Every structure is written in C-alpha cells, then in structure tokens.
Amino acid sequence: MYYNWKENTNTEELKIVCNLIKNGELVIFPTETVYGIGANALDENAVAKIFLAKGRPADNPLIVHIADRKTIEKIAKDITEVEQKLIDAFMPGPFTIILKKKDVLPSNVTGGLDTVAVRMPNNVIAKAIIQFSNCPIAAPSANISGRPSGTDIEEIRQELEGKVSAIIDGGKTDIGLESTVVKVVDETPIILRPGKITAEDIKSVVGKCIIDNTILSKVDENQKVESPGMKYKHYAPKTECLLVYCEDDLDQIFEINRIIKKYRGDVVLLGLKEHSEKIVMSKERYIELGSKEDLDSVARNFYSALRKADEFNAQIVIIEGVKKEGLGLAIMNRMLRTCGFNYIEK
Ligand code: TXA
Ligand code: MG
Q1: What CATH number has the domain bearing residue 293?
Q2: Residues near ligand 1 with C-beta < 6 Å?
Q3: Arithmetic mean of pLDDT over the chain
C-alpha cells in the first residue's frame, strides 16, 4: 500500500502503518538521510523479512532506530562518558553509534555481533512511526542489496513494491547520503562510515576522532573489518562507472573530455555545475550533480542521478569527484564504491 504523507502525516493511516509494524510486517519510510525498510527490531521473524526483501547478506547488521534517548538503555548497555557525549550532541540527527547490545535484541538484527548500531532519525514521519509502533525499528536503506540507496519514492517503488506491506512517501530525502556510523574504542571515536556529521563535528565535542582506513580503500570479502557493510559491493548501478577527480579544474575538464572522446560519446556524465559549459557532449546525457561549492546538493542528488544514468544503457558512466574534505569525504566514499574503485585521480 502506498501512502502520501508529503504534506502531513495522516493519523488514521499512521495507525494502520504502526499496526503493520507491530504485526511483524515491513514498511518503507523516509528519514532525513535516505529511506529505510523498517521492521520491529525485537521481532526475529520480522527482521528476517528485511534480509530477504533486500537480498542482504546475513552477516551485515542493521541499524536500530529509536525515537527518544531513553530507549537507548533498553537495547544497549555499558555506555561510556564519550559515547554519552556523542549521543547528547548528535541525536536526533544523521548519526549512528555502535554500542554493546542487550539480549532483548534478536541476534539476526546485529548480524550475530555483540554490538548494536543505534540511530535517532530527525524526521517527523520516522519519529511518528517509531513512537506509535512503540518498539525500536530495524531499518537498512531502502534498496536491493548492492544498489544505490533509495532517496526518491518513485525509484524505490520500482525496485521494492510488492516486497513490503506499506510505502510512505515523504518527498525527496534531505541529506541524500546515509548517516555517519561511529564506534568508540578506548575513548576515541572511529568513523566507520562517513556522513553529514563529520570528523571535525565529532572533534568539536570530544576532542578527538579517527577515520577508519577502510573508508577510502577496497576491502576484501574475507577481511575482518569493524563495519561488515564495507566489504560488500555497494551503491552501484548496472552500468560500469568511472570516477574522475583532478585538483585542478582545467585538468579535470581535459580528462573528462578525453574519456568522452575515447568512448565516442557513448557515456553519461554525472557532472559538476562549474565545469558543465566546457564539457563537449550531448546535453541529454549530462546529469548535473550540483555545485562543488555546495556539497549538500551533490550529496542530495547523487543516488537519484546514478539511477537516471542507468536508463541510457551507455558504455560507461563518468562521475566527477569532489575534494575529500568535510561532507566531501562521505561523497567520495560512496563514489569510490559505486565505481568499484575504478578511479582516475590527478
Ligand atoms: O542513514 C542511515 O543510516 C540509513 C537510514 C535508513 O537510517 N540506514 C542505513 O542502513 O544506511 P544500512 O543497513 O544500509 O547501513 C548500515 C551500516 C552498514 O554498513 C552496517 O555494516 C553498519 O551500518 N553496522 C550496523 N550494525 C553494526 C555494528 N554492530 N557494528 C558495525 N557496523 C554496523
Ligand atoms: Mg545500505
């Protein structure tokens, strides 16, 4: 069932949707980052349905979403001072923290780990659904495993309609990239997945922050990593992708024009506004990502742009990279994985 809550949350429909959650069904709902496929996190069978709908490997744990801070102690334990400071500073928001899990959570939610990823989304629809369902909600991004995350409801419907009991339309998501995932080890926060909340933001609260070295590098499927999600193919359209980033604008334009020529124009470009006029290609196959001066726009448009690019069945999708600073680190982390590390940098 499809529900349009773009303008406001319908209370009658909210009851229906929350009953579905209580009865162990799947519901797609918006958050401020990307859409999620939610189920009652305390119900093992409901959680199993999420893995099935997405085709997600069983060892890739889910994020558990809550609506208020006091629910944290029901699902997690031994919270340290540093963890508490981060919770107070960044929740609600695009921030996920890995904590020691309590036994009430079935082991499939956490992929068998003894830790749980906890997040409090800052989105009215997400909050209402969690609150009125009266349970924590496990929710990975709304996409088939390996595909770009869902940020636009029409694209999500094409991919997942029929696999879930309800789809809530809350409009295009605001941030467009998934939350920052952080684990605190020996009082030091480690970013396992970069997002809108940056290392600088975290440092400003607790004085330190490390960026995990898997963020910009390829991880082998057999490698032991802190965040299992990093091992798998991710965020990828069907068409092969190539990421290009040159510090100098003229180099960047030159490289892109060279690649377009090499493929005789049978390309799609996800491009930056600043370079568009100097790139020689068919206007139809040029998809603007946003401005390099406004990385929020690049983040917001990225996944939708990838899905659009696929429709051309081109030989290759060229993606313009950005500087790996601030939100740019999260953008480049997703872009590198989208391209399977097929990357030109100068
Ligand atoms: O913004 C978001 O975080 C979205 C929205 C829906 O909230 N959710 C999301 O979930 O991106 P998902 O399942 O697509 O990504 C969760 C990431 C994965 O990389 C997973 O491996 C990691 O979090 N993760 C979950 N539990 C973990 C744990 N206990 N330890 C380490 N990493 C964990
Ligand atoms: Mg995901």
Answers
A1: 3.40.50.11030
A2: 31, 33-34, 36, 60-63, 96, 98, 110, 113, 115-117, 119, 121, 139-141, 178-179, 181, 192-193, 226-229
A3: 95
